[in-house]
């Protein structure tokens, strides 16, 4: 990893967390810069939540180091944590408090100066669509509104880093759209880590993505690079009179043949050997009836499954 700069909000190196003999997270590096939205993905049990708990100071790493805006999280936890807003998967809500009472408590716990609390409260409610429910008990709100309250407490103190674990769970489509817009807005002046199982959400919001599997970091790059990761070495081949699969597999450079339908094939090829010219030549010579030859478009879901199975 590079040396952290003034624009780096999170810098974590060689994070490892063991529970007895089991290593839940192994040697994970992470760097997040101001203005970025990072999608944090992985199947259940991959180590995402454990990693986020370490980044927020809720769980000490067995090995490794973490700095938040240049502050060592392990050496100066109070100062480092003041720069973080965190929404866990199950928001820590007090159902017997009103929305205003709860957010005032959150601002007080974050040591926001008293003279700034009213404006901070108003701003957080406006950003999360809570302006008209400030006096309502949290326990009487719908799941969607409770989720909004959880996000409001994470951003009310204007942290440099916002970490959101499944922020759109339980929301209806309109609410999901609003929260996505809010996350994109947060990414303008802050850094955001978004953990979610909704892959379309990552494609719509995030600048970069990291994928974990069995405690290891298996991918880290931009969304554009992720989409090209697998599709760049796959073509769709359409033949009206297709030969046996083995004949296609014998074309120099082809490494795998998969039938997409009766007459459409998905061919993978070696990184250093593009077989498209050979495929066209053989299709003409053998009268295969070539009607389609194009790069395959690979979705984020395809790449995710490829990396985690």
Structural class: alpha/beta
**Which architecture of the largest domain does the CATH hierarchy give at level 2?**
3-Layer(aba) Sandwich
Order of helices and strands: EEEHEEHEHHHEHEHEEHEHEEHEH
Biggest sheet strand line-up:
6-7-8-3-9-10
Indicate the CATH class of the largest domain.
Answer: Alpha Beta
Largest sheet: 6 strands, mixed
Rg is 24 Å
Total number of helices: 11
Give the overall shape, derived from the CA principal axes. Answer: elongated
Q: How many discrete domains? A: 2
Can you give the helix content as a percent range? Answer: 25-40%
Structural features, described:
This protein is an alpha/beta fold and 309 residues long. It folds into 2 domains: 8-228, 3-Layer(aba) Sandwich (Rossmann fold); 232-308, Alpha-Beta Plaits. The protein contains 11 helices and 14 strands. The chain has helices at 48-55, 77-81, 99-109, 114-127, 143-155, 173-189, 199-205, 223-231, 245-249, 276-285, 300-308, and strands at 8-19, 22-33, 37-41, 63-68, 71-72, 84-87, 161-165, 191-195, 208-213, 216-222, 234-239, 254-259, 264-269, 290-295. The protein has a 6-stranded mixed sheet, sandwiched between helices. Strands 2-1-4-5 form a 4-stranded antiparallel sheet. A hairpin with a 4-residue loop joins β12 and β13. The protein is elongated, with a radius of gyration of 24 Å. The two termini are 26 Å apart. The relative contact order is 0.13. The model has no long low-confidence stretch (mean pLDDT 89).
């Amino acid at each position: 990893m590079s040396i952290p700069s003034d624009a780096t909000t999170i810098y974590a190196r060689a994070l490892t967390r063991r529970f007895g003999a089991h290593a839940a997270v192994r040697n994970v590096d992470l760097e997040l810069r101001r203005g970025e939205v990072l999608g944090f993905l992985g199947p259940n049990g991959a180590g995402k939540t454990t990693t986020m708990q370490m980044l927020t100071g809720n769980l000490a790493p067995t090995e490794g180091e973490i700095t938040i805006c240049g502050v060592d999280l392990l050496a100066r936890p109070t100062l480092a944590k003041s720069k973080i807003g965190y929404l866990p998967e199950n928001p820590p809500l007090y159902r017997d408090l009103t929305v205003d009472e709860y957010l005032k408590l959150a601002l007080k716990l974050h040591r926001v100066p008293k003279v700034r609390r009213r404006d901070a409260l108003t701003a957080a409610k406006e950003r999360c669509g809570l302006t008209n429910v400030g006096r309502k008990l949290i326990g009487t709100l719908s799941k969607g509104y409770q989720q909004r309250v959880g996000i409001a407490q994470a951003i009310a103190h204007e942290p440099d880093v916002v970490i959101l674990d499944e922020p759109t769970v339980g929301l209806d489509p309109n609410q999901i759209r609003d929260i996505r817009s809010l996350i994109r807005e947060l990414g303008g002046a802050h850094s955001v880590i978004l953990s979610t199982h909704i892959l379309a959400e990552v494609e719509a919001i995030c600048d970069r993505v990291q994928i974990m599997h069995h405690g290891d970091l298996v991918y880290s790059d931009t969304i554009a690079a992720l989409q090209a990761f697998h599709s760049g070495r796959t073509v769709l081949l359409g033949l009206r009179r297709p030969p046996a699969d083995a004949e296609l597999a014998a074309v120099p450079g082809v490494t795998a043949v998969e039938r997409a339908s009766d007459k459409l094939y998905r061919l993978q090829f070696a990184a250093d050997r593009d077989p498209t010219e050979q495929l066209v030549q053989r299709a003409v010579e053998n009268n295969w009836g070539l009607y389609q030859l194009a790069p395959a478009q690979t979705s984020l879901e395809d790449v995710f499954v490829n990396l985690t199975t």
